[in-house]
Amino acid sequence: xxxxxxxxxxxxxxxxxxxxxxxxxxxxxxxxxxxxxxxxxxxxxxxxxxxxxxxxxxxxxxxxxxxxxxxxxxxxxxxxxxxxxxxxxxxxxxxxxxxxxxxxxxxxxxxxxxxxxxxxxxxxxxxxxxxxxxxxxxxxxxxxxxxxxxxxxxxxxxxxxxxxxxxxxxxxxxxxxxxxxxxxxxxxxxxxxxxxxxxxxxxxxxxxxxxxxxxxxxxxxxxxxxxxxxxxxxxxxxxxxxxxxxxxxxxxxxxxxxxxxxxxxxxxxxxxxxxxxxxxxxxx
Length: 284
What we know:
Number of strands: 10
CATH architecture: Alpha-Beta Barrel
Distance between the termini: 14 Å
CATH topology: TIM Barrel
Number of helices: 9
Order of helices and strands: EHHEHEHEHEHHEEEHEHE
Radius of gyration: 18 Å
Strand content: 5-15%
Number of domains: 1
Structural class: alpha/beta
CATH superfamily: Glycoside hydrolase/deacetylase
């Protein structure tokens, strides 16, 4: 079912951070690219993000691996930082427990990862049922067979792989108390015709059995992100922009200079009442 928000006054912008933390970096880095100092740099970048938006009261969503919220030693466990993010007014979402490649998991393994990450993040924050959203690691799977999306990049296709389809993840997340999930996919038709619907904002939000599936429109903070926000303002469409705290240290579209420019632009449009910045936990 296509989801329609109740308040259609002005478009909403949702800024999502994929905060992998130490376990996520370890599980997503080739061994010959691993450097321990990057674990500290990502944390430093999160603190930079929080400081830059604090005075402007700009709410964002941080999807964090559950392992980071376990009790243990810094920098592998960062309970104090997670609590700071929450008490600064931002939303905490689950990024799985240890940043698993979901298409390789069995359904029960996925259920345990989502249950544990939600439980330990809520334990860290000290508030029950505060974790409402799920952001799949690596944005996988990108296959959604019901909608005609099939991705060879999932690297796990066939009946022996139970979590290689977005549709199979939805009921597990919903039954565990999640209300929304970020999804990334392109249909075979879109691939053949070269239509890029996520960037054109034609991708619909879906209410699938009570779980709202929100499309990821863009990853990065460069001029393309600004173009997408302007398009959303023009066409009265909500926008999802995502990034990685670790990306602020790299040279790509997520670098720190681009992030600051995007935030300045967003604040200007918000103050002009052309857009509102919201949290997904508030979507009904």
